[in-house]
Amino acid sequence: MPRPIRIACATESGRLIDGHFGSCRAFAIWDVGPDDITFIEARSTLEADESADRNRARAELIQDCQITYVQEIGGPAAAKVVRAGVHPLRVAPGTSMHAMLERLQQALRKPPPWLARVMGIEAASLARYRLHIEQAEEG
Known about the structure:
Order of helices and strands: EEEEHHEHEEHHH
Domain Dinitrogenase iron-molybdenum cofactor biosynthesis: 14-106
Pfam families: Nitro_FeMo-Co
InterPro entries: Di-Nase_FeMo-co_biosynth (IPR003731), DiNase_FeMo-co_biosyn_sf (IPR036105), NifX-like (IPR034169), NifX/NifY_domain (IPR051840)
Distance between the termini: 33 Å
Protein name: Dinitrogenase iron-molybdenum cofactor biosynthesis domain-containing protein
Shape: globular
CATH topology: Nucleotidyltransferase, domain 5
Family: Belongs to the NifX/NifY family.
């Protein structure tokens, strides 16, 4: 069974993904696996906001996460997040944190290629393709 992935949700309210990456009050950190959703902690962004490069400091704050859900993120900030090894995903305003995490949990059971890459595993569709290529090369 794949290991859980760590998620950062940009939040103002603590219940919704209602924060812009560059200005949210906190990131709610979750571990999401195929069978469990576990709240880890809320990480305040106050200290990061005192940094000369706020976006880099915010990216470092969540660098142990594989995905961050945000309401908005600018291009330069997204580049810093990606460089930190985190996959940024925008969601519609007012998206429920728990509902989004449940949708992700469902996707973990049969991940599309992009999510399998985030999880560090090979997607089933890619494995089938690889097997097909290997068989063609042998025959």
